[in-house]
Amino acid sequence: MKARIWLNLGLAALVVALALLLWHKPKPATQPEFKLTALVSAGIDRIAIDKPGQPSIVLQRTSSGWRLSAPFTARADEEMVRRVLEITTAASLQRFPATDLGRFQLDQPLLRLALNDQEISFGMQNPLTGEVYAATQNAVFPVAPRYLAHALRIPADFASRALLAEEEKPVGFEFANLTLNQRDDGKWLAPPASTDQSQDDLNRWVDEWRHASSLLTQPYDGTPAKESLTLRLRNGKTISCKILRHEPEFVLLREDEKLQYHFPADVGKRLLRPGKQTPNL
Q: C-alpha distances in angstroms, 112 versus 21, 34, 59, 85, 270?
């Protein structure tokens, strides 16, 4: 019995000793990370993207949100801007002096990204790690390739696909074969012959206009207009639009923005008349 007690005590002492050893064992040092920039996304109000042989893309923060100011003007796609600004959180486990840029193909960069006054150049991709070399502030950093991919977009990708801005609330529609106005009590009033839809149907249809999102937004290409329509907004503003095409896609020109929005053909049919099919022109 005594032998068993001494054995248990010995095992307990061994467990305590091992626990103390693990507790006091030096922890491995954390490998340092090198940040590309001290900037934070909230402090950036200008983004410029330059690719060889292509027009510069310039985005500027305004009181109403980000706007694309070059190579054409448009409301900016906020999600695309957010992705580009992810580079403010980028860190690398390695940092090399920027003394041999040709080694990383940074003597002729694939792309230059300017955040306010700080420029970041992107060069070759490491074939083993998949990382891309980025040069900034007299140093070269291998970083995840997504930071380059986010900036390697065409100008139209940075234009908002939303036909209407968040604050643009329609209260009236004037089409060739439909006039619809919202009363003070929120109900929609249309001539009896214009539509046989219920108020719920009309509300859903108006919401489709409010949330209409294009497949592509680009500058007006000069296509002759098929017909015109007008949207009247709650703030008193009116938006004049031209229908450029019905098929194979529905293309709508916002004349005030000089931008054309491309939608699937079936979306165009729904937008032009609630619950009805619009013949091709």
A: 52, 20, 14, 14, 43
CB atoms within 10 A of CB 145: 16
Instruction: At 168, give phi and psi (nearest 5°).
Output: -90, 100
Q: Judge contact between 37 and 120, C-beta under 8 A.
A: yes
What is the full per-residue pLDDT of the chain (281 aa) written as tens digits? 555 555 454 555 555 455 455 555 555 556 789 999 999 999 999 999 999 999 999 999 999 999 999 999 999 999 999 999 999 999 999 999 999 899 999 999 999 999 999 999 999 999 999 999 999 999 999 999 999 999 999 999 999 999 999 999 999 999 988 889 999 898 988 766 555 678 888 999 999 999 999 999 999 999 999 899 999 999 999 999 999 999 999 999 999 999 999 999 999 999 998 755 444 43
Q: CA-to-CA distance for 217 and 57, rounded, in angstroms?
A: 15
Structure tokens at 47: 């983004």
Distance CA 59, CA 183 (A): 39
Domain positions in the chain:
34-158, 170-272
What tokens were used for 268? Answer: 């165009």
Greatest CA span in the chain, whole angstroms? 104
Q: CA torsion, points 78, 247, 188, 202, in degrees to nearest 10?
A: -80
Least Cα distance to 80 among 217, 212, 207, 210 occurs for: 217
3-state secondary structure 57-107: EEEEEECCEEEEEECCCEEECHHHHHHHHHHHHCEECCCEECCCHHHHCCC
The secondary structure element, H or E, covering residue 15 is helix 2-24
Q: How far apart are the C-alpha atoms of 263 and 162, rounded to whole Å?
A: 11
